[in-house]
Design a protein that fits this description.
- One of its GO terms (cellular component) is chloroplast thylakoid.
- This is Synechocystis YCF37.
- The protein has 154 residues and is mainly α.
- Helix content is 77%, strand content 0%.
- It has four helices and no strands.
- Helix 1 packs antiparallel against helix 2.
- The longest helix is centred in the middle third of the chain and has 59 residues.
């Protein structure tokens, strides 16, 4: 694995600083443990620089794709609300037309009732004539029944 520029500069600084080991410094900074720590810490320090560019890499461009998906979802929700509003307007128009149809049907029923009343209704004189005719027929039928029962007496 090739060392990055940050890693190589850290390594050079440690090696040149501690190259001539003197007896005055009992602790050496260039130990395996320190080098291992610096080698593992250097990539973490250099990653902060590339985070801002991560969305430009196609593999890591999830934020951009997520933003696009959110925008599309918002657009679909807006279209859904618009469609629902149009549906409500259409339903209101349908209800209004049905109400107009009911009013027209009621007017038709009322005119039909008037026609039936006119056809069935008699004037006062015609009704009195019908009653007199019915009574005359009833008297004739009653007379014939009584004559049939009593019979002629001869």
């Amino acid at each position: 694995m090739a060392a990055t520029a940050a890693q190589s500069s850290v390594i050079r600084a440690l090696v040149t600083r501690n190259a001539p080991a003197s007896k005055s410094s009992p602790v050496s900074l260039c130990t395996r443990r320190n080098l291992l720590f610096l080698m593992t810490a250097a990539p973490a320090l250099s990653m902060k620089e590339s985070i801002s560019r991560a969305q430009d890499i196609p593999l890591f461009g999830l934020k951009r794709k997520l933003k696009k998906a959110e925008e599309e979802a918002e657009l679909l929700v807006k279209e859904g609300f618009e469609t629902a509003e149009k549906g409500l307007e259409t339903a209101e128009k349908g209800i209004e037309s049905v109400e107009r149809g009911l009013v027209t049907a009621e007017k038709g029923i009322e005119s039909a009732e008037r026609g039936v009343e006119e056809a069935v209704s008699f004037g006062g004189l015609a009704q009195a004539g019908a009653v007199v005719g019915a009574e005359a027929i009833a008297v004739l039928v009653a007379t014939s029944v009584v004559n049939g029962i009593l019979g002629p007496e001869a």
